[in-house]
Amino acid sequence: xxxxxxxxxxxxxxxxxxxxxxxxxxxxxxxxxxxxxxxxxxxxxxxxxxxxxxxxxxxxxxxxxxxxxxxxxxxxxxxxxxxxxxxxxxxxxxxxxxxxxxxxxxxxxxxxxxxxxxxxxxxxxxxxxxxxxxxxxxxxxxxxxxxxxxxxxxxxxxxxxxxxxxxxxxxxxxxxxxxxxxxxxxxxxxxxxxxxxxxxxxxxxxxxxxxxxxxxxxxxxxxxxxxxxxxxxxxxxxxxxxxxxxxxxxxxxxxxxxxxxxxxxxxxxxxxxxxxxxxxxxxxxxxxxxxxxxxxxxxxxxxxxxxxxxxxxxxxxxxxxxxxxxxxxx
Length: 330
Description:
Blueprint: E1 3-5, E2 14-17, E3 29-37, H1 58-63, E4 66-71, E5 74-75, E6 89-90, H2 93-100, E7 105-107, H3 117-131, E8 135-136, E9 138-139, H4 142-146, E10 149-153, E11 156-164, H5 170-173, E12 181-182, H6 188-201, E13 204-210, H7 221-233, E14 237-241, E15 246-252, E16 255-261, E17 263-265, E18 275-284, E19 287-298, E20 305-307, H8 310-322
Parallel strand pairs: 3-4, 3-17, 4-7, 5-6, 7-8, 11-13, 13-14, 14-16
Antiparallel strand pairs: 1-2, 2-19, 3-18, 9-12, 10-11, 15-16, 18-19, 19-20
């Protein structure tokens, strides 16, 4: 059973750890994760200065050994809109903003990376390559889409896999052996195989899923089942976003699970909640030894996630802590 640790109010964070412990040794590895990022409407203006697009929350991302977000947009100026309600796209400077914020890898396994069709996806992949930003969870074929990004931090090999569990257009958007597209969780066998292969090549495996029901701050049965399959396949960490809300975290055996990271750099003010944050995980000996949500609130003016403090931080932390009750996690 995980043990809740009280975080200092001045730190403005909530933490969950397998057992109480002392401050992290210098050899520990820190991973930082945040939710949905795109540049539309109010957030489009942020790309006038990509170096500052994420705002002060970027300091938290930069301090991590590896930081990751969900880049929920096609990065293109071409293509034809797909038959769906919302369409997101951004210029190639979106990748400049991501790099400047200290983000090391992005997932594009989501329900917007093909908003402008195969042409838009091809541009996104090309722009990511030119910018030197690893973009995982989609590719020119299934092998690329399900392939992990692997990095080594102080001798520990960490593999990152990304998939989408959103059902909108999933059959036409799914990557195939001979078709570009998104790594889809509906292909459970391929998702499991991807995690097993990543586990064979790395000490730590992270699965970032785009999943959940919009507006529901409790994980669905589908999410729980998929998280269990990922844990069985060897995932060290399973986390994700899509519901536009924070969802709870906890332990599924030895696997740390965080069901929802909420919006992050967000385009409009009528989201379900402006509560967000950076999930910061500490790795020790190839396992998660400590977790904390560094709380933030999305600015109603700029759409940037602004670090929270004082009573506002405490409220977000409490909400995040209370969300554990419906996760079914340890």
